Each structure stands twice: as C-alpha cells, then as structure tokens.
Amino acid sequence: MAARLCQARELRGLSQRDVGVRMGLDKDTASARISRYESGAMSISLEALFEMAKALEVPPAYLLASSTSMADAVLALGQQPPRQQDQLAEVLVSLSRMEPKARAECIQRLLPPNTKV
Predict the structure, then answer these.
(1) Which backbone phi and psi does 99 adopt, to 5 degrees?
(2) Average pLDDT for consecutive 10-residue bins of the chain (117 residues)?
(3) Cα–Cα dist 110/117, whole Å
(4) Most buried by CB count within 10 Å: which residue of 47, 53, 114, 116?
(5) From CA 96, how far away is CA 11, in angstroms rounded?
(6) Cβ atoms of residues 22 and 72 within 8 Å
C-alpha cells in the first residue's frame, strides 16, 4: 500500500502535506503522518484509507492493489461511469474464462499495434 500511496500522490501532483490536509489532518503534522504511511512505518486504519483515497481522488482498491497492473486496471475502471464499469467488468470476466490462446488473440486485437501479449 505504501508504494501505491506515493504513486497516487505523485500522480495528482500533491505534497505529503497537501494529502494530509485534504484528509483533515492538522497542517503542522500532516506531512509527517503521510510520510510514515508512505514509508510503511505506520499502518493505516480502514477509515483513514478511505479518507486518503478520497483526498487522492482514487478508488480505495487502487491503494490496496498488489501489483502495478492491478492498480492501473482499478484506476481505469474507476474513471468510467457506473454502466461502463459494469460492462467492462463483464468483458474482463468473459476474457478470463476464455482459453489462453483465444484470449491472447482477442486482447491483441484490442491493443495498439506492436504491443506484445
């Protein structure tokens, strides 16, 4: 989570202090608190995780993603309207159920030219 937090903060162009203040932390301690979260020196409560996601304008699942690819997918999905989210989720489930070769061919057709699958 620490890496995602730093990544999201930098993506938004925010300082550690900015994020803390957006979360409602005191401006004098905000930077230190966010620094401890980013370094992994301090664990974050579920309530604070949701506040942080709101402050960073990302879905909470983005901060919990276990890989960069997962985080990118969560962020991309979260930027879509609800109906599109439902449709994209259905497509992903359908793709995951396909035979590997057929799935790779389908994905290759969707990606820009020269992208390896």
Answers:
(1) -60, 145
(2) 90 95 95 94 93 95 92 93 95 95 92 78
(3) 11
(4) 53
(5) 29
(6) no
